[in-house]
Automatic annotation (TrEMBL), chain A:
GO terms for molecular function: phosphate transmembrane transporter activity. Keywords: Cell inner membrane, Cell membrane, Membrane, Phosphate transport, Transmembrane, Transmembrane helix, Transport. Its main location: membrane. It comes from Aquimixticola soesokkakensis. GO terms for biological process: phosphate ion transport. Gene3D superfamilies: MetI-like. This is Phosphate transport system permease protein.
TrEMBL record, chain B:
This is Phosphate transport system permease protein PstA. Its main location: membrane. The keyword Membrane applies. Residues 1-25 are annotated as: Disordered. Residues 228-440 form the ABC transmembrane type-1 domain. One of its GO terms (molecular function) is phosphate transmembrane transporter activity. GO terms for biological process: phosphate ion transmembrane transport. PANTHER family: PHOSPHATE TRANSPORT SYSTEM PERMEASE PROTEIN PSTA, PHOSPHATE TRANSPORT SYSTEM PERMEASE PROTEIN PSTA-RELATED.
Length: 490, 451
């Protein structure tokens, strides 16, 4: 891996720069630290950062752009008649990449000499077999076009690697030398280094912004492409969800919405009473011993990964509900056709949300000042009356906020519904029917090798956008309620 | 008798309104009180009961995955089949495929059965349905690794098929197997006899913990080891990226950022990112790293990058809490003796906040380790993780699975024998998470300072 070696060399140069910068400063100060403007270590760091930062930056950008450039050059070798659309081109290009990789390995393993590899003829040599024998399987037969493109890829990569090494090392050396020659005993090294470090800190803080921008752009771009292929009205108001990769899909979001909301409501019906009462008991009634024992145990439920809940829904709760409501079940009814249903997913999701509701409500109830409780108790109210008539009204905005946050969690939850809710998109009232949700459909439309050009794959981005907007809206609304209606006690 | 006495009603005639006796209304209120308290206790008990049900079903269903049924069979490695050229050259011998080995094993097993005093009119091929389909591959690999074994009779511990395994574990009943086309009742009688003879036995199965995933038809062979390595590489990426970036972001926001609109935007952003559903991060990873950045699908590097972005808000929030818990007097003292702002932060505040930061990071990592949804979108399912990555670079770049993705993959497969594996995998995953959380708690208990 040349890039890795390059990085190691740059690091060694940086270390050498540190020593050089430090000793130059010390020499200029006649070996007496007191003559220096900054501590000696800052002079070293100054040179080290000058060597490291530009070189690593260039290395990173280069590594990012080189494959793009290689693909660009190579795709010009593929004649436009041999592929129908950009999807087919990208398939050909991935084969080209593999052929290039196979040839590289063949040269490295000594199956073929480097000069022979550069002058192959697809009509006389079985390039595919050569590539396979080097350990890189190639799907399609290699045409002369593809071979030429593969050779171009190899050519560009080879030149690129050399050029990259040269440029990166030159930049490192030049920047290091400039920084080194700046050093005198009066050079304000600490200020310079601290400015750079602060710049790095700001850069890190920008990553949070970049992530949001990335999310919005990746969702928005593909969503717009989707609406170019499929009418937005049919998407938002269609009542049928029937994607078929052959074309003629009906992609109405309403059945998915219905499934999502139904499951979330079942989950909240389980989680809110249990979580709320648990929080009330823990903060108002429980002694320190019970609290120290029950609170962490309840919070264990929050630390369990969702895949575990999904499996629990699929393999334990689903069959259990089948035994009760399914064919030949305890109640002798046939309300349930299969183990996956709204109820299965909703119940398990409710269990998952219990600690979420309880720990948030616990914090909020504890924030209600003790003097209010004392006042109520002093007037002769019982403890439960105090809770119902004084504590809960005071904590209500916070609790509503907690429930809204739990709802946003429920809407965005994926693994439980993927495993527990089923795949049938239907608008039914029966909670024992299998239904499907927005997140489930995102997973099923984007797993597999669908290309990103068909509306059936792009619809997942539109679904993701809807999900993102919904959960974000709920969160902002929850925060707004909490802020607006919060009682100020102090 | 005085007048006052006459005016006082006689005690017997008085209505019962003493504070020592409770009236109906008070009783009602007390009942409501007791009921309310009972609801609270009920909620706690219900919550704990859910936890118990979850753990019981994980452990009850998962433990059997750690044992596996093996059949001990002496196989005569016939040179006429195994080494047709007779020169013990592994390259030549590799031309005999696993199909070529099948008769050897079938006959060996038939002999073993008859030696245990069982008479059966089943053909050796049908009899060998008891063995896993992986048996031929296992024998072939042993022979290719050590050509000197050719011509000898070697004792092999071969995997039994998953149905036999299920029968021994009580997962599959006789009635269910009778409806199945793969095994007959006669097979089961043979298994019972061989079991008492010690030929068929159930032992601890290291291959489940360290082995590779197998194809859909061979649940008995599947292990979680390779995806564990995939998870390890992913966690390395997450640790190396999210710790420095998270700490740097927190230091800037907590110590240096001026209070203006820009930093407000960053702060609101981070708290919103913490609430974005994890699947949206999967879409981001798919669009940015795979669609745009052309990184390989299913690579732990991509998984690590996506999980880094997902974990960053968690780490930032806990790091900021740790930093702001360091009292201002520390900063003032450092500034007072001439340290620069940067020096006061890096030399004094950061070391003091380190235990809190590490605790938050470990909890963030634990969260990332168990996360599945984003991994589904970047292609970590549907891929059979059958080979250990060769080398560090391949560990990051070559397609692999991850523990939660592997568990999901098993849960999706049609053969119910895989469900046991999925539960077993969950036990390992939870052990990892438990260890990480315990380390976090210990770190907090030992090093956290209260100011």
């Amino acid at each position: 891996m040349p890039a890795l070696w390059l990085l190691v060399i740059v690091l060694i140069l940086a270390a050498a720069g540190f020593v050089a910068g430090r000793s130059r400063a010390m020499a200029d100060a006649q070996g007496d630290v007191r003559n220096l403007h900054s501590l000696p270590v800052y002079y070293g760091n100054h040179v080290m950062l000058a060597v490291l930062l530009p070189a690593v930056l260039i290395l990173g950008i280069w590594l990012l752009l080189q494959p793009l450039a290689a693909t660009q050059v190579a795709s010009s070798h593929i004649s436009p008649d041999s592929y129908a659309d950009t999807g087919a081109l990208s398939l050909i290009m991935s084969d080209v990449q593999r052929v290039a990789e196979g040839l590289n390995r063949a040269v490295a393993q000594g199956l073929i000499s480097a000069s022979d590899a550069n002058a192959l003829d697809a009509t006389t040599t079985d390039v595919r077999a050569l590539s396979v024998s080097a350990g890189v399987p190639v799907a399609a037969q290699v045409t002369p076009d593809m071979l030429a493109a593969a050779e171009a890829v190899r050519h560009v990569s080879a030149i690129g690697s050399w050029l990259m090494s040269g440029v990166v090392l030159a930049v490192a050396l030049v920047a290091g030398f400039v920084a080194w020659s700046q050093i005198t005993k009066d050079f304000r090294a600490r200020n310079t280094v601290e400015r750079v470090v602060k710049g790095l800190l700001i850069l890190a803080a920008m990553i949070a912004i970049l992530t949001t921008v990335g999310i919005v752009l990746s969702l928005l771009g593909n969503t717009i492409r989707f609406f170019g292929l499929y009418p937005a009205m049919d998407f938002f108001f269609g009542t049928t969800w029937a994607p078929s990769f052959g074309g003629g899909s009906e992609l109405g979001i309403l059945p998915l919405f219905w499934g999502t909301f139904y499951i979330s409501i079942v989950a909240l019906i389980v989680a809110v009473p249990v979580g709320l009462f648990a929080a009330i008991y823990l903060s108002e009634y429980a002694g320190p011993k019970v609290r120290a024992f029950a609170k962490p145990l309840l919070e264990v439920l929050a630390g369990i990964p969702t895949i575990v809940y999904g499996l629990f829904a699929l393999l334990t709760v689903g069959p259990l509900l089948m035994k009760l409501f399914g064919q030949d079940g305890t109640f002798g009814v046939t309300w349930m056709q299969g183990g996956t249903s709204v109820m299965t997913a909703g119940l398990v999701m409710g269990v998952m949300l219990i600690p979420f509701v309880s720990s948030l409500s616990d914090d909020i109830i504890n924030a209600v000042p003790q003097s209010m409780r004392d006042g109520s108790l002093g007037l002769g109210a019982t403890k439960s009356e105090t809770v119902r008539q004084v504590v809960l009204p005071a904590a209500l905005p916070g609790i509503v906020g907690a429930i809204l946050l739990a709802a946003s969690r429920a809407i965005g939850e994926t693994m439980i519904v993927v495993l527990g809710a089923g795949a049938a998109a239907r608008l039914s009232m029966n909670p024992l029917d299998a239904m499907t949700t927005v997140t489930t459909r995102i997973v099923s439309q984007l797993t597999g090798d669908a290309d990103f050009a068909s509306p059936e794959a792009l619809v997942a981005f539109a679904l993701g956008m809807t999900l993102f907007v919904m959960t974000l809206g709920l969160n902002i609304f929850a925060l707004y309620i909490v802020r607006k209606y919060r009682e100020q006690y102090d | 008798m005085s007048l006052a006495d006459a005016n006082t009603p006689a005690p017997s005639a008085a209505p019962k309104s003493s504070i020592l006796t409770t009236d109906a209304r008070t009783k009602k209120r007390n009942r409501a009180e007791a009921r309310f308290k009972a609801y609270g206790i009920g909620a706690i008990v219900l919550g704990l009961a859910f936890l118990a049900a979850l753990l019981v079903s994980i452990i009850g269903n998962g433990i059997p995955a750690y044992t596996q049924t093996f059949v001990t069979v002496p196989v005569y490695l016939d040179p006429a089949v195994v080494d047709k050229q007779g020169n013990r050259d592994p390259a030549e011998m590799a031309k005999t495929t696993t199909f070529g080995y099948a008769p050897l094993i079938q006959n060996a097993f038939a002999t073993e059965v008859s030696q245990n005093g069982i008479t059966t009119d089943m053909a050796p091929k049908k009899l060998a349905d008891i063995l896993s389909a992986s048996a031929t591959g296992q024998v072939r690999q042993t022979v290719l690794d050590d050509p000197e074994l050719v011509g000898q009779t070697v004792e092999f511990r071969l995997l039994a098929s998953s149905r036999v395994d299920g029968y021994l574990k009580g997962r599959v009943t006789r009635e269910a197997l009778a409806r199945d086309k793969n095994l007959d009742a006669a097979h089961l009688d043979i298994i019972d006899t061989l079991r008492t003879a010690g030929v068929v036995n159930r032992t601890w199965n290291w291959d489940f913990i360290f082995g590779a995933d197998a194809s859909e038809s061979r649940p008995e062979q599947a292990g979680i080891g390779v995806s564990m390595v995939g998870s390890l590489f992913m966690m390395l990426v997450v640790l190396v990226l999210s710790l420095p970036i998270g700490v740097a972001t927190s230091i800037y926001l907590e110590e240096f950022a001026p209070k203006n609109r820009w930093t407000d935007i960053i702060e609101v952003n981070i708290s919103n990112l913490a609430a974005v559903p994890s699947i949206v991060f999967g879409i981001l990873g798919l669009a940015v790293f795979i669609q745009f950045g052309h990184l390989p699908k299913s690579a732990p590097l991509v998984g690590g990058l996506v999980l880094t972005l997902m974990t960053l808000p968690t780490i930032i929030i806990s790091t900021r809490a740790a930093l702001s818990a360091v009292p201002p007097s520390i900063r003032d003292a450092a500034l007072g003796i001439g340290a620069s702002k940067m020096q006061s932060v890096f030399h004094h505040v950061l070391p003091l906040a380190m235990p809190g930061i590490l605790t938050g990071t470990i909890i963030g990592l634990a969260q990332a380790l168990g996360e599945t949804a984003p991994l589904l979108l970047i292609g970590m399912v549907g891929y059979i993780a059958s080979n250990m990555p060769d080398g560090i670079a391949a560990g990051f770049m070559a397609p692999n699975s991850a523990m939660p993705a592997q568990i999901y993959e098993w849960a999706k497969r049609a053969d119910p024998a895989y469900y046991e594996r999925a539960w077993g995998g969950i036990i390992i995953l939870l052990l990892f998470l438990m260890t990480m959380n315990i380390i976090a708690v210990i770190l907090r208990r030992r090093f956290e300072r209260r100011w």
